[in-house]
Amino acid sequence: MNTKYIIGIIVALIIIVGAYMVFAGSNNNKITIVGSTSVQPVAQSLATAYMKEHPNVKIEVQGGGTAVGLKSVSDGTANIGTASETLQANQTTGLTSYALGQDGIVAIVNNNNTVSAITTAQLKGIFTGNTTNWSQVGGSNAKIDVIVREVGSGTRVAFQAIVLGNNTNGTPVDFASSAIVQTSTGAVQQAVSQDPNAIGFISFASLNNQTKALSFNGVTCSATTIADGSYTLQRPFTFLTKGPAKGQTLDFINWVMGSEGQAILNNNSIVRPTK
Q: Which one of 150, 183, 261, 273 is most buried, counting C-beta atoms within 10 A?
């Protein structure tokens, strides 16, 4: 066989093997996180800090909702799925859960709204459509514009379970048919900030000065009241992997559970219960 031909084959094989090793290495050093839009900003903060310390690792963080996170990690298209609701056993079959901490859900109104406090009964009346005017809950004479999250949102599920509860047959009480549906925490905030008569609900971790949070049953949402349980409108933030985490994903999760990760979670108002 021609020597040049043999050398050419060897060179081609070296190039192919080298390319494969680079590709395999890049995949091993890439972590994809998908799921709850409430967890998304927190996960991004964790990812940014981790990549700064580990420049060979690339972490991509995407939203889509808790249901999308569960599906993505289950079918293997994401290394980590994120959830912002209490999950049932049948939702986590084959998955391993890693608790990040507790997050409050806050009912938010426009900064110009005079209402500052709300009760469970009042919130239920508003979000089921039985209470339609702000004057019915101590506000001005104006129609209430209800804003909710989309089906599949962990924030929606948690709020629905805690505030609306179940019908006598055990099915969840539904939101008002007239409610405006938004597909992310940011979209709810923006809609409420632009509408003086709107009300919505978002993650406490995402709260900013664009809107006003209402106290709930006489308790203001804070890291302290979430931790001690006095603020009862709260839910867990969770990472999930398909089976126990391995390799680079495990390294990242161990870092999250360590002192540096916990400090970032605390700074994002994700807290560990004290009772």
A: 261
